[in-house]
Amino acid sequence: MSLLFKRRRAGRVRLSNTEILRRATDTILADRLYLDTGLKCNDVAKAIGTNRTYLWDALRSRGFGFQEYLSKFRLRYFIENAPRYSDCSCAEIAEICGFNDAKSLNRYLKQMFGITLYEYMKKIAQGL
User: Fold this and answer.
1) What is this structure's pTM?
2) What is the CATH number of the domain that holds 66?
3) Most buried among 8, 17, 71, 96, by the most CB within 10 A?
4) Mean pLDDT across the chain, nearest whole number?
């Protein structure tokens, strides 16, 4: 039996956490689902052919939850595209990148880089 699968009591085969996360990541990136502010764990689970509980378990096995998982994609998108949004408000930038609001984007920027959205955009405007 492949390492990608685990046996369950009823004789069904369940995808491993690694395979679930690989499929979720591939789907989220390919379809740019992270830009949807209303994206739910259940939506991704259905798209990859599993259920919400298995996806949550796979995420928790790596030490994070669904929103944190999505926020990493959104933050990467923001970093790659920030110069294009220099004329937008913080709220507009957050929405374009899939965050519910500027406060959420600020929180993740602060966690990852120790800088706020305003400070980041200011540095971009200064060409740093």
Assistant:
1) 0.84
2) 1.10.10.60
3) 71
4) 89
